[in-house]
Amino acid sequence: MKRSFLKKLATGLLASILLVGTVGCSKASDAADSDSSKNGKVELKIGTWAGAQELKEFQAIVDKLNKQSDDYHLTIQSIPADYYKKIQTMAAAKQAPDLFWLSQEYIPMYAELGVIAPLDEYIKGNPKVNLNDYFEGPLQVGKVNGKLYGLPWINQPVMLYYNKTLFEKSGVELPKPDWTWEDFEKAAKALTKDTNNDGKVDQFGTVIDGWPPIATWVWTYGGEIIDKTGKVRIDEPEAIEGIKMLNKLVNEDKVTPTKTQAQNTGGPEMFKTGKVAMFFGGAGDDLEKQVGNAFEVGMTKVPHAKKEATFSWIAHTVMSNNTKNKKVAAEALIDLTNAIHEWKILPPTKSDLEKVEKIRPDKKYAVDIIKESAKVARGFNNQKQQNELDSAIWQELYEPILLGKKSPEKAAKDAAKALRKILGQ
Amino acid sequence: MKKLKKYEGLLFISPWILGFFIFTVFPISFAFYIGFTDWNSFTEPKFIGFDNYIHLFQDPNFLNSLKVTVLYALFAIPLGIISSLTLAVIVNVKVKGIYFFRTALYLPAVVSGVSISLLWRWILDPDYGLINLLLSYIGISGPNWLGDPSWVLPSYVMMAIWGAGGGMLTYLAGLQDIPRSLYESAEIDGANWWHKFRHITLPMLSPVIFYNLVMGMIGSFRKFNDAYIIGGAENQGKFYMVYLYENAFNFYKMGYATAMAWVLFAIILLLTLLVFKTSPLWVFYAGEIQTAKSKEKKKLGTNVFAGSKLKRFKGPEMNGLKGAEINSFKGSEING
């Protein structure tokens, strides 16, 4: 009797252990399979946030590479929503894709934590990569402690889009590439008005609602938020000069809709519907297409003060430190990066810039000015705690300025304090 | 054999027990440890003792999120209870078409939280929103709801009250469980509506109120979905859970976030215990005989009787929460 009970107990326990066990096992065998496929190629996964149409286009690129290569076979792992959260958990479980996309602000942290591997040894002497061909800005954000952790596949500088029709109708001189912030301010003021005389301003010179980044002003006035060495410099006079101009545009000239207004309607929407005359947008934004025939869109460089600079949205392809065959993975990364340069604008390389016209015929009218901007486009000097820093800048500096709650000096001082605390300086 | 049968049961539930240990007990104990570490979730956790907990109370953002959440709870819970109770009393009448109103009022509780949040973001828009449009008809220029820091909290409280229909259902069920005879005998004694409400309805509903109070407290402190989507100016919409999430998934400070979770757990536990402890003073159960003596005993509280403590904790749990819920749901099904 006793024996039969024990037997049952043992069977039950065994059954439940097996149940749990199979889940773990299936994972393990998956991993073993993925090392190399039947035809001897190394199986690699590429993590991407591309979804829907973008994913289809990306798949076509990957298919082509797979056909060409004898060494690797790439499989796309599409994570269109909550990309960074999923990458985080995958990396924590040492299951990160062999290659994946990272936006600039994540690179230093992933590098310092050893999640991604440096590429220098695979790039050096590789005929497929010429680092000198890359623009300094997009390449720079991939460098952490002197090592290169990724290759940029996109470099989208912020440009100044304008509603040409509205400018001409109002008799205001069209924006020019050599504009200073004062020129910009003058035009914005002239274009901010109450068109239907109901006592409410319904047409604005520009829209500033947390976008473009505060660096747009800080950098053009010769300042830095955080410099290359990681030192906080947002409270230095040059940076404050820039913040003062922002403050003037928002709170004195009032050439932008309020933050709530802009955020609820959306800055791009306000531009597309002709409520805003000048809009800071990425060079690759398809504003022209969306505007259609409603009005003529123009594009020029972001205004400057002491120097020319513009923030650029940059993303890299990086390589996981857990990938088994780094040499082949790096090879795939390089091929993939080169292939994306024919797909997305702006390519971060000087030689590929000629392709903009071909990739996106709708940008033909602005190719020259985009090329000009690419020269001065750059990313942040990203730190390991970049997300936290961005959050502090918004909280202590940008939002209070937009709401008219702090003077530029006070905002800069508070932000500097918060940033230094986060960085432990 | 009979003895063994007893263990067979355990055997059959062993998958569940294992699951419980693997997916509940282990993560909780692990989280307890993580609370004492500096962990970015990628590399090994580094033990730092109480540092997380010490930093928490020096972190202005943490204190702000705690303040926002407590203030919200302070307003949203009582107002929520009052509004759902009022709604329940109103729809507890026998008129034609009352089902329509009951359904309409309950509807907000059915819609997914995310879509509600998106809807509210539009309703609260200062220029194109519904509320300010209506206000403008009567000559009031409405506030900048989510854009003005001082209006953020009232906006959230308003949203919470809009969802009062969910609570209404439990009160309605409770109301229909109150025996008619109690009102009849009170009427014979000449009681007016207020007397009846105050001395019959409220005491008879107290288990349901108790239930809603506890659930409301837990819900308010764990507020996340709409706050995450809607936000609010100057961090006034940054509730406790939102800041916790930020730390864990944006700042990669998993240890710090876990410490926050434990502090939240302690707060909720303390408050719930407090409510449970005071419940004998104001929660009444049908069938409980109230005498001068029993009242006296209640006022003396739990200090006198160690045993009564146990009883009282069990009491509301078994009778109040589950009992009232089950009974009253049944009641409502049958009656209305």
What is the CATH level 1 assignment of the largest domain in chain A?
Answer: Alpha Beta
**Alpha-beta content class of chain A:** alpha/beta
CATH superfamily of the largest domain in chain A: Periplasmic binding protein-like II
Element pattern of chain B in H and E: HHEEHHHHHHHHHHHHHH
Topology (SSEs and partners):
The complex is a heterodimer of chains A (425) and B (336).
Chain A lengths: L1 H34 L6 E7 L3 H17 L3 E7 L4 H10 L6 E5 L3 H6 L7 H4 L12 H5 L2 E2 L2 E2 L1 E14 H7 L10 H11 L12 E3 L8 H6 L16 H16 L6 H7 L1 H6 L3 E7 L4 H5 L5 E4 L9 E10 L6 H15 L15 H4 L7 H10 E2 L7 H17 L5 H16 L2
Parallel strand pairs in A: 1-2, 1-3, 7-8, 10-11
Antiparallel strand pairs in A: 3-10, 4-5, 6-8, 6-9, 6-10
Helix pairs in contact in A: 2-14, 17-18
Chain B lengths: L1 H11 L1 H21 L2 E2 L7 E2 L3 H6 L3 H32 L6 H13 L2 H11 L6 H8 L11 H14 L2 H13 L2 H9 L4 H29 L3 H6 L9 H11 L3 H29 L9 H9 L5 H30 L1
Structure characterization notes:
- The complex is a heterodimer of chains A (425) and B (336).
- Chain A is an alpha/beta fold.
- Chain A is built from 18 helices and eleven strands.
- In chain A, helix 2 packs across helix 14.
- The longest helix of chain A is centred in the first third of the chain and has 34 residues, at 2-35.
- The model of chain A is unreliable at 20-36 (pLDDT under 50).
- Helices cover 75% and strands 1% of the residues of chain B.
- In chain B, strands 1-2 form a two-stranded antiparallel sheet.
- In chain B, a hairpin with a 7-residue loop joins strand 1 (37-38) and strand 2 (46-47).
- In chain B, helix 4 (60-91) runs antiparallel to helix 11 (193-221) and helix 14 (254-282) crosses helix 16 (306-335).
- The termini of chain B are far apart.
- Residues 300-336 of chain B have low confidence and may be disordered.
- The A-B interface holds A 1-2, 4-5, 8-9, 12-13, 15-17, 19-20, 84-85, 88-89, 91-92, 109, 113-115, 258-261, 264-265, 385, 387-388, 391, 395, 399-400, 403, 405 and B 1, 4, 7-8, 11-12, 14-15, 18-19, 22, 40-43, 61, 121-122, 125-128, 144, 146-147, 233-235, 246, 249-252.
- Chain A: Pfam families: SBP_bac_1 (PF01547).
- Chain A: InterPro entries: Bact_solute-bd_prot1, SBP.
